[in-house]
Structures are given as C-alpha cells and as structure tokens.
Design a protein that fits this description.
CATH architecture of the largest domain: Orthogonal Bundle
Structural class: mainly alpha
Helix content: 40-55%
Number of strands: 3
Number of helices: 13
CATH class of the largest domain: Mainly Alpha
Largest sheet: 3 strands, antiparallel
Order of helices and strands: HHHHHHEEEHHHHHHH
CATH superfamily of the largest domain: Intergrase catalytic core
CATH topology of the largest domain: hpI Integrase, Chain A
Length: 252
Amino acid sequence: TTIEVTVRRLRLIATSSNLDNTEEVTKFLSDREAKNSYIESLANAYFRYTKYNNIDWEQPIIKRSSQPPYVPTTEEITALVSDAGKKYSLILSIMKDTGMRPIEIERTNLKWLDLNRGTINVETAKHGNGRSLKLKDHTLAMLKEYIGSNTFNLNDNIFPKVKTMRRVFTTLRTRTANKLKRPEIRKISMYSFRHYFATMLYHKTKDILLVKQQLGHKRIENTLIYTHIVNFREDDYIARTATTKEETFQER
C-alpha cells in the first residue's frame, strides 16, 4: 500500500539524515545514486512527511529519464522462462503472453480466470483500465496444472507477492546471464516482460489503440513510447481498437 511504501522510504532516508532537517534530506536525495524514478519516490515520501508534520520544504524537481525502456529479445525471454522452476516459468509466461504488471500478477485470484476461454480478466492496477487478456495454449495448460496441484479459495491470491517474485527473479536473471555469458540479461526486470509484450504486439498489428487497451493504459501518451521502440512511421498507425472481446483476440 501507499502507506507501507512511504514508511519504507522514510526509514531509508532516516538511516542517513534527520527527517526534521530538510537540508540534510535534500542533500541525501541529491547524493543518492539510484534511478531518477526511485529518487522521486523517496522525495514524494518525504513530502508527505513534511506536510503531515507542518514542516516547510520545497520538493526538488527530479528530471525523469527520456530513455526508452529496455526491451529484451525473444531469445532472452525464452532463456529466462526455460531456466525458471515450474511456478516462475508459469508467472513469466503469463507476463510474456499478456503484458500484465507484476502487481496484477500478485493480485490474480480464481475469480479473474476463465479457464474455458483461456483468459485472465484483470482488474485495474495503477489507476488503469481493466481488460480481458488471452493466454497461449501452453501457458494455459501450465496454469491449469498449477491450480490443480494447489488448494485455493475463490478470493485467494494464487501467486506470491511482488517483493518475493522480484527476489526470485533477480536470482534467476543472474544465473541465466552467467550461464549464457550474456551480461546484458542483467538489464531485464520483471517489468521488461510487459515492455516486450507491448513492443511485439505493436510490431505485429501496428494498432496503437489495441496496444493501449491491452496494457490497460488510460492515457495514449503512455503507450506511444512503443511506437518509437519499433520505429514505425506515424502514418503507419492504425487508428482503431477492438469493440468486443472476440474481435480483440482474432488473428491479425
């Protein structure tokens, strides 16, 4: 939750600075070596602290990187899925097939699943739009086996928490990179599977509105980055989207 994340961020800041000393915190943020998005999340957490405690602090502007996300190759994705154990091979295959966010994987329960149609009906995450996503036959077979070998109640989350999944994935990524002698694999995160899905879907369909719908984006600006990754011209866009579930999953 937002409260839990804020508490964790504040505890980190407090290890190196006095939370009531805004100059110390500002210096901590400026000296911290991390991604700009993470520094921004630290600053947001401290801003909440200052507002709650009536401390005057001008939050610094953190410039986000304009670099496109790293998109792994099909070979790299396949290597990671193949090297994972059964549970994580299933999780990564679902992300590869659907572009689901890690938090959406964590929240997946039996009510979301339609095993007859082979779909996951994802409820919104990150204030995005819900959507129905199609699984490939092999992934669906793995999912059915996984559910059949476990006992879940209807509302139970059937996969681990994001924190646990990321820890396991980091170990898997390092092992695969070392085995294949491919250090670039260490650039891949769980979220990279979402970038891979979106890039491949746009490459196949050139339908930016379909990509937006399948990712659950509310703003088209968040989706347009994938057109730059695959480097299609603007006049190649197909300005339409599916209006029914059947149309969404028809062969193109």
